[in-house]
Amino acid sequence: MNAARWLACLVLWLSAPMLAGRPDVARGAEHAPDSIAARLQACAPCHGNQGQGTNDDYFPRLAGKPAGYLFNQLLAFKQGRRRYPPMNYLLEYQSDDYLQAMAAYFTAERPPSLPPRVTTVSEVVLARGKTLVADGDPAHGVPPCSGCHGPKLTGMQPAIPGLVGLHASYISAQLGAFRYGTRTAIEPDCMQIVAAGLTESDVTAVAAYLASLAVPTDPSPLPKGSLPMPLECGSEPN
After folding, report:
1. To pair with 113 at 20 to 30 A between CA atoms, which of 23, 63, 135, 167?
2. How far apart are CA 234 and CA 160, in angstroms?
3. Which domains does the chain have, with CATH numbers?
4. Tens digits of per-residue pLDDT, 103-129?
5. Residue 222's beta-bridge partner residues?
6. Is the Cβ–Cβ distance between 235 and 192 less than 8 Å?
């Protein structure tokens, strides 16, 4: 993240609570509203208005993802189990209740999605990605992405995330992090198991195919228990 964007996030993050505590501001007619929506404008430079995403490859869309998933990720950044210094710093001193409020805000948002980027990979690579997403690779113990994330890839309550509306570079980076153990989940760590069965070319194919898909008109995650979970996975990954 460049210095200007990081500074903008920090100023926005801190300004609403500070202004709310000033008596001269509280008495005036013109002051920043002290609401969760106002405070979370701090997230907009990286994640877009209402969490809709931006054209930056490495900052994901947040809107509409299950609240349990969003809370788990915020908590992981707070506790340092997921490592990205700006996020670790911003969340280090936030209460768990506030993280829950953040998650609840973004899960309820339904902003328009950004159009998918034009892919630069071949049709063969896209076809491989589609096969892995829809059918998996049984010979290598890889279940289909749709088996956990849903046929529309919008996720499942309470904590399986949607995969649409993300950039290929972000998806590839997260799969790589699971493969090499720099991103982990609670046992059984199903994403580590799945990612370990993918080759580098498979990761490229899956990321390219998912990034080529448009976000559905209704991006709501499926209700809990809608899908049988492969690999004895639970429905609440961390």
Report:
1. 135
2. 9
3. 3-108 (1.10.760.10), 123-229 (1.10.760.10)
4. 999 999 999 999 998 889 999 999 999
5. 156
6. no
